[in-house]
Amino acid sequence: MREILAYQIKGLRDAWYNGLSGEALRSVIVFPLLILLSFAVCLAFPTLRESLLSYVLASMDGTGAIRDDGTLSALALFSNNLRATAFIMAYGLIPFIPLPAMALGVNAMVIGVTAAWYFTEGYSMLGFLASVLPHGLLEFPALILAFAVGLFACGQITRRLFRKDENALHLWDCLVLMSRMLLLVLIPLLAAAALIEAYITPVIASLFF
To answer: What is the pLDDT of residues 122-136, one digit of tens each?
Structure first.
């Protein structure tokens, strides 16, 4: 069992040094910039902000993460985030079209819109950070790694199909990489983030409201 685990970890490490780290770095840089851009645009265009906020609220209502008594379900949070990260990576299997980058923009928009709402409603931005960062310190890295794997896979498949690059990964190799990332990294991160978001974040956020 230990040998199998070591082999899977080695596969992740090899991918990291063969280009995945570059995609992760770009995602780390672009993600906060897109959040700031979304925040600024929402402040500049109130009508757009309200429309996007309605979209965000409708999306949250459809997740089932909020119980009837107003508390959060850790299982629902974990399930939704796991599904989201899996889809983000799977988008990378479509060659030439960088759909994971679009998903990166959508997630950044959600955070930017929420921050703009806090600001325009007169709430403390420290309160916003308290509502996001406790679980976000684990959830955001998981999202960024999912974006990175999706973009990396898209690049590899595009190179093999359109540029006939024999050194690029096969589709199967990309699926194996996604499975390794999901099982070894994303599931532990998202499980811990869901527990924090359900039971710890509300306590910390309540100190600011």
So the answer is: 888 999 999 999 999
pTM above 0.85, yes or no: yes
State which amino acid sits at residue 174. Answer: C
- Nearest residue to 114 via CA among 135, 128, 133: 128
pLDDT at residue 83, as a whole number: 94
* Opening angle at CA 48, ends 42 and 52, nearest 5: 85
* Nearest Cα to Cα of residue 92 among 76, 80, 107, 103: 103
Only one residue has tokens 């589709």, namely 171
Q: How far apart are CA 202 and CA 130, in angstroms?
A: 9
CB-count burial class (<10 Å; 0-12, 13-18, 19+) for 74: middle
Q: How does DSSP assign 87-134, residue by residue?
A: HHHHHTTSSSS-HHHHHHHHHHHHHHHHHHHHHHTT--HHHHHHHHHH
Please write the tens of the pLDDT for every residue from 139-149. 999 999 999 99
**pLDDT above 80: residue 63:** no
- Residue identified by tokens 């898209």 is 154
Please count the other Cβ atoms lying within 10 Å of the Cβ belonging to residue 97. Answer: 12
In the chain, which residue ranges form alpha helices assigned H by DSSP?
Answer: 2-15, 21-44, 46-61, 74-91, 99-120, 125-162, 171-181, 187-199, 201-206
- What number of residues does the chain have? 209
